[in-house]
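Quick start: read one record
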Amino acid sequence: MDYIADKLKKEFFDEELWVDLSLGILKLFVIFFLSRVVIRLSKAVISKFFLVRSKSPIRVSERREATLLKLIQNIITYIVNFIALIMALEVCGLDIKGLLAGAGIVGLAIGFGAQSLVKDIITGFFIILEDQFSVGDHIKVKDFEGEVLEIGLRTTKIKNVTGQLHVIPNGSILEVTNYSMLNSVAVVDVTLPYDGNVKSAEDAIAAMLGTLPLKYDELVKAPEILGIETLSPTEIVLRITAETLPNKGSSISRVLRKEVKDCLDQHEWNPGN
């Protein structure tokens, strides 16, 4: 017992032991401190980059930039923390090469068993990075169409007009139709009797169309009459087009039909006029 006590006492007062321990603690502190500095500095640089980009004439919507900014900041945080953890384990005397080799084998095994998961995550990252669509956009993926409620790295959630929620794995999204990025065009066909006075109907409708941008904010400019679209022995079809804000074509089409009907009724238009 005295021998063990003497040995422990000798090791406790071993100057080299305490120096190594102090250096190890100091290294851990430096690693932790530098990792926090790198993360803060990286986030500040990225935020500054997006701030400068927001003032340029070419840019995407604010919500898309916010999504991309948050994603990049999180990725940098994960990478820096992982590197700091590896360095800290090395300071503690663990075999990093053996640990990484074992982790690589386990990761390889998991990768073979979760290929679809990896595909979903990679595809989700590129959906956000390439700005294919964002939350609030109206899109169509295969047979699913509706408003995007949530975009994750693994799945995308779409709500259709009847309230059904579709959860789609990102890896299965091969083609996307986005109705919310560019202006829409409303197309309305107006049927008139063949023996009617088409010129008077066109003049009345054109005058009415010029007043619509003041009534409906969804219109980018006044709708236009393209002219006669089709002829038949019994009727003439006039085509009207209107440029609208993104995803407003259907609602404006219904508005145009009502306004044209009211216009013709107001002018008491009939085949003899």
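Residues 143 and 166 are 11 Å apart (CA to CA).
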